[in-house]
Write a structure and sequence with these properties.
Shape: globular
Number of strands: 6
Number of helices: 5
Oligomer: single chain
Structural class: alpha/beta
Order of helices and strands: EEHEHEHEHEH
Helix content: 25-40%
Strand order of the largest sheet: 2-1-3-4-5-6
Radius of gyration: 15 Å
Distance between the termini: 12 Å
Low-confidence stretches: none
Length: 189
C-alpha cells in the first residue's frame, strides 16, 4: 500500500512534509498546472497522471487530500478505480467535504461554515465559482478527517456525523503527521 498525499492545489505543496517520516511508502504528487480554468478538472487530471507515474500499476493506495483538494477526492478516486488501482481509504486534511450535486468552492465554504477561511494569495478570480465534479458512488472506501486548523472544525464535525474516523491535531502541528499515520492505519486495518 502507498499513501498518496495530494496538495491543496494552485501549486501549493502538501503542508505536512514530515509525514514522509511516519507513513509507509508515501508519495507527494506535484500538481502545478491547475492555475488556469477549468481548475478542478485540471487538478483531477494531473493528480491522476502523477499517481500513475509515482505508483505502480494496480498498487493499492490511500488517498489523502488537503484543503481544496478534499472536495475533488471522489473524482481522483474514480480515476484510480478506472485505472484498476484499488483505493483502500480516503483522508481529508483541513478540507471541505465533498457534497452531492455540482457545488462550487464558494458553496462548500458557505454550507460548511468556512467563510472565515481566507482566499489564498494569487487565487484566480473564477476559482471559487467554478462547478466541481462529483462522483455519485463516493465514498467507496473508509474515510477519515484530520483536523489541524480550528477554522475547519465544522467540516470535521460533519465528517464525524457521517461516521468517519476523525483525529484532532489542533494542539500541536508537530503531532499532525503522527495523527495522520494513525488515521491511515485505522482506515486500512
Amino acid at each position: 500500500m502507498i499513501t498518496v498525499l495530494l496538495p491543496p492545489g494552485l501549486g501549493t505543496p502538501f503542508s505536512l512534509p514530515s509525514a514522509a517520516d511516519v507513513l509507509t511508502r508515501p508519495v507527494f504528487p506535484r500538481i502545478t498546472d491547475d492555475v488556469t480554468a477549468p481548475h478542478a478538472a485540471r487538478y483531477v487530471a494531473r493528480a491522476s497522471l502523477e499517481i500513475s507515474r509515482l505508483v505502480g500499476d494496480r498498487t493499492p493506495v490511500v488517498l489523502v487530500a488537503e484543503g481544496d483538494g478534499g472536495p475533488l477526492l471522489g473524482a481522483v478516486g474514480a480515476a484510480q478505480r478506472s485505472a484498476h488501482r484499488p483505493v483502500l481509504g480516503y483522508v481529508l486534511v483541513d478540507a471541505p467535504l465533498p457534497q452531492p450535486g455540482s457545488p462550487t468552492r464558494a458553496d462548500l465554504a458557505r454550507n460548511q461554515l468556512l467563510t472565515g477561511v481566507p482566499a489564498r494569495e494569487g487565487e484566480p478570480a473564477a476559482y471559487r465559482s467554478e462547478r466541481l465534479p462529483t462522483v455519485p458512488d463516493w465514498p467507496d472506501a473508509p474515510c477519515g478527517y484530520l483536523l489541524t486548523d480550528p477554522a475547519h472544525a465544522h467540516p470535521a464535525h460533519l465528517a464525524g456525523m457521517r461516521g468517519w474516523v476523525v483525529r484532532d491535531a489542533t494542539g500541536s502541528r508537530a503531532t499532525a503527521s503522527v495523527e495522520l499515520a494513525a488515521l491511515v492505519t485505522a482506515l486500512v486495518s
